[in-house]
C-alpha cells in the first residue's frame, strides 16, 4: 500500500505506536526482528524513511523537539 501511495503522492506521513515504527525501521534497515528493542522510539517522536525505486534510506530516527526533552 505504501508503494501505491508513493506513486500518487510525494510525501506520506504515518502515525502509529512505537513498536510498529520500530518494526518498519527494522525492516528497512535490514535488521533481524530479534533486534527490535535495540533502539528507542519516544512518544511523539519523528522518524523519516525515504522510499524510492532504488530502495529505502532511514533519514531520521526518533527526533524529539528539544522542549519536550527538557520539560
Task: Itemize the secondary structure elements and their pairings.
Layout: H1 2-8, H2 18-29, E1 46-52, E2 55-63, H3 66-70
Antiparallel strand pairs: 1-2
Summarize the amount of helix as a percent range.
25-40%
Q: Give the percentage of residues in beta strands.
A: 15-25%
End-to-end separation in angstroms reads 38 Å
What is the number of strand segments?
2
- One letter per element, helices H and strands E, the order comes to HHEEH
Helices and strands: which structural class? Answer: alpha+beta
The tally of helices reads 3
Radius of gyration: 13 Å
Identify low-pLDDT runs: none
Read across the widest sheet, the strand sequence of neighbours is 1-2
What is the molecular shape?
A: globular
Largest sheet: 2 strands, antiparallel
Mean pLDDT, nearest integer?
A: 83
Account of the 3D structure:
The relative contact order is 0.16. The model has no long low-confidence stretch (mean pLDDT 83). With 71 residues, the protein is α+β, with helices and mostly antiparallel strands. It has a two-stranded antiparallel sheet. The longest helix has 12 residues, at 18-29. It has helices spanning 2-8, 18-29, 66-70, and strands at residues 46-52, 55-63.
Question: How would you describe this structure in keywords?
Answer:
alpha+beta; two-stranded antiparallel ribbon
Summed up:
This protein is α+β, with helices and mostly antiparallel strands. It has three helices and two strands.
Amino acid at each position: 500500500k505504501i508503494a501505491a501511495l508513493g506513486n500518487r503522492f510525494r510525501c506520506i506521513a504515518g502515525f502509529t505506536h512505537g513498536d510498529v515504527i520500530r518494526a518498519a525501521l527494522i525492516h528497512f534497515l535490514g535488521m533481524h526482528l530479534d533486534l527490535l528493542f535495540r533502539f528507542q522510539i519516544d512518544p511523539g517522536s519523528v522518524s523519516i524513511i525515504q522510499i524510492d525505486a532504488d530502495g529505502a534510506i532511514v533519514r531520521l530516527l526518533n527526533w524529539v523537539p528539544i522542549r519536550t526533552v527538557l520539560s
